[in-house]
Amino acid sequence: MWTSSLFIRNAVLGASLVLASAVVSAPALAETMPAPSGEVILTVSGAIGTTNGDGVLAFDSDLFATLPQHSFKTGTIWTDGTATYTGVLLRDVLAAAGATGATVKLTALNDYQIRMPAADALGDGPLLANLSDGQRMPLREKGPIWLIYPYDTVAAYRTEQTYARSIWQLNQIEVAD
Amino acid sequence: MMRVSWLPMAMGVLISLAFGTVLVLSWQLRGELRTLQEEPVDSLNWNVTQLELDVVRLESAMSLAVALPGASLTEVRKRFDLFFNRAGTVTQGTMFAQLGLLETVRPLKARMQDFLDRTTPLIDGPDANLRASLPQIVASIGALRQDMRFMSIQVIDMNAALQDIRRAGLADILQMIAIASVALIALLLVLLALVLGLNRQAVRRAQEVQRITSRLEATVGTSLDGVVVAGMDGLVIDFNAAAERIFGYTRAEAVGQSLGALIVPARHRAAHEAGMERMQATGVKHVVDAGRIRISALRKSGEEFPVELSIASNEGPEGMIFIAYLRDISDAQQAEAALVAARDEAQTAEATKTNFIAVMSHEMRTPLNGVIAALEIIGRTGLDAKQTRFLGLARNSSKQLLRHVNDVLDISRIDAGFVAVTEDRLDLPALLATLVDPMRPTASQKDTQVELRLLSDFPPLMGDPFRLGQILQNFISNAIKFTDGGTITIEAEVQMITGDQAEIEFRVIDTGIGIAEADQVRIFDDFVMVDPSYGRTGEGTGLGLAISRRLARAMEGEVGVESASGAGSCFWLRLPLSMAGDVAKARPAPLAEVLQPKSAPPANTAPALDVLVVEDNETNRIVLEEMLRHLGHRTTLAADGGEGVILARARRFDVILMDLSMPLMDGWTAADLIRKEGASAQSSIIAVTAHARPDQMDRFAESGLDSWLAKPLSARDLATALASDRAIRTPAEVAPQLAGKAAPLLDTERLEELATIADPQALGRLLAKFCAQMDSILDRIDAGALTEPMADLASMCHEAAGAAGVIGAMRLNQRLAGMEVACHASDRAVILMGQSDLRHIWRETCKALVQRA
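Predict the joint structure of the above. Result:
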């Protein structure tokens, strides 16, 4: 009994620590996120330490652009040809929100919803892209935010699970324990 | 063994094939699995299904907007955008292409594109327009929904069918991998069995090798001979127990050491190393595989000892190895050496005895000749009857004694190989008649008849009449001796003719007392007299038959006897004689041939001559006698001029060799006397002289001498002189001088010539004689140099110089000849001067002679 509880505590502590260290890496953003002034494109809620509204962290396009930007070029099975996708890595968004949970739940405008362990969310792959070849992605073309992976460069992402996690028209992230 | 050699190879090929198949299939499978993993099958099904859901949602939003005309159109527009997005995913995405469903999905795409093309302008237009068009759009959505459902199901069906095919392919590959794997495992099992079998076989073989090895080790280890095995590098590989005992090294000490350093004596080591190197370089073996050899070896203690050794070589797995079998033969060799020493001692004793007999006989003969000659001379003076009777007795006794001495000398001569058998034309009937006729008177004194019966016609034959006569004479005189009032029959018969050889048998048959069978075998042995009682009265040394047998053998014939006690005897001689052809070819006398040294003058093929040698110097006599025997002539010796005259008058000689300077009667006088009367008045007389003075040459013309030879005589000169009978050799212009350049100590040519004509024993005797003679003369010269009359002193010097010349003592000869000249000139000062170091020269000469011997 004693050992089992200790193991669980350690596991939780480990996951929390991972997220905490991610938070520490972006101290400028901690707890002082301004409220969005334009149309909200993404709302982060749940177990987070940073908010700018009613218990949530809401991003408009300008605020989203203040987070560290990443981009890569890849093709997808849902589009014709390749494009350079630009946006913010999922882990940077979670870090900005001071997320401490073990599971991340992502929901799209069309009610499509996925869950992934926080550990998966902290990888190099998942990018919350809002620009395709430098252009805003409209609702009709998987906008405003598309969770995308570098399928072409990393073979490990060419799997059913990754395809399923590639959620488009994303507008809500909820961090749960 | 064949089975084993091809099976693993076949197995290897099969296993490689199976393994390759598995490998190829696995690669294929990996590809298939990756494709399967990356196929967006679920995503496709989801999207196609969601497409319908999005359409339904759009339709319900629009129906709601139709029912509530005042409500906002935002929801309608959002639902349209979501559907638009979904349709784009289906129409633009690569998933259909990846799955091979591009053609299947084409009608669906076309249908949706048609709807979107028509509706999008309305949605993006003003609200009023949109609101007016809503009922119409709702209607077309209904139709689209129906078509889409049908088409989506078609896509999903087709996809399912494709997946089935793919799975079946995958299953095939898996099945094939399974089969290949099973085959591979089966093959590996067979291979395992095979390896196990081979292993068992190897173990069995190893055990067998072990058994053989231990047996071999036991064999080598218990061998009484030392066994040493070494490699090509000369290092010891093995060393058995016997070798340990012999050499004193333990096996551990010996193995790995160099053979040369270990057991080869230091003085042979260089040769051993050279031999090893030569063998390594050329592969030529001298000692190896050469059978048994005897060699010196070295013990650990440093003691050298003899071994008998045989070395075998063998090609081992690590190259050539050498196996030496050694036996310590120290003891054996000591025993052998003792045996050899004993034999040598016995031989030496025998040789000494023979030598003694020969020398003694020779010594006895000379004075005997003197006695006989003296008796002859006494006989010519007036004697009374009693004196005449005693003289007759003395004559007979001395002659008998001379015969005995000659017999003994003959034996030792024959044994020493000094018998030359000549090849002359033989007239057998005449020869037999001349042999038998002189015996008749003796026989008739005993009332015995002698008959000669020739049982065949005899072809002309070649042989030695003298030796043949000697044998038959012995047989006949024996027969007469042992027969009283009986008959003696002498038979001769041709037994057989083969080619140019005829075998002749001579028989002397008597009716005398006969010989007991037990004695028959030994009567041909030396000194055997069968009947001692008879022997006392009879004559004989018991050597006659021994000589006969020796002579017969020298002529390649044989002698024998058939007899019975009291029933008479038959002595026979069988001789192979060559037949004289038109060209009388001389058969080379075997003994003469053996005696003939390579450098010697050619053997005299002329008929044997009876030669009388008249010589006062004994050394010269012996030398001349040996030379003449060597040339095949019969020799009679006389020690001075008087004796020479007596012998020459008594019997005819073919040639007389006459020394000119002799005491009592010199050569000139003797030659004159011989010419005057006697058997040899017409014989050829050859002077032999060391003098070469012209005044003597003048006297020569009126003397009885035919020709002359210069001393020292060479065998070649002698042979030439005897052959031509007239050869006059101008003596070397020797001008003996006391002063001037000294001659060499020894004349080596002369000594070599002496060595070729006489055997070592005879030469040794000659030298011993010469030394004794020289000692005595030098003593006399020393004693008389001041007091003796000049003539006597000259004679002494002359005698000594002659002896020195014969033996090749050149310097001594020169000195003595010079002194002789001084004597003739009565110059005593020169004589004394010459005499002063005469002894010294003589010692030097002796030393040089000893060194040569």
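The longest helix of chain A spans residues 2-24.
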